[in-house]
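Sample entry (133 residues):
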Amino acid sequence: MDFNFYRILPQMKVEIPKDILGSGPGIPDTAATRSAVALKPVIIQVGAFSNHGAARVLQERLALLGVTMHLHESQGEDGHALYSLVSDPFPSLVQAQPALTRIRGLGLTPVLSAVPGQPTQNGSTPLPAPNAQ
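Predicted structure, serialized as tokens:
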């Protein structure tokens, strides 16, 4: 067998635009990761599901990647249960980066929130503390 790509790949150059890695929903920009905001505790939420089984499947997929998430059950506006996957608090955004990278590797967009009891920058209401299940 002839594997031409072993000769071709070293000659290839791939440039990744900076905005792919540092902008968009759930992706803090470089300035934010260097600021005081980056040093505040955060939690990560991944998804809100109406189906308990779907939430558990994603929870297990993330666990295989080394990302521990807790299933948080809440009431939706229509009265039905919603299941969110929420992380334990990370001491800082910087320390949350490895988990965020793994989550994004699955094509998911994580949501960052301030730890309950911590003031938020934009006045949003932080998530309640996750219930371990």
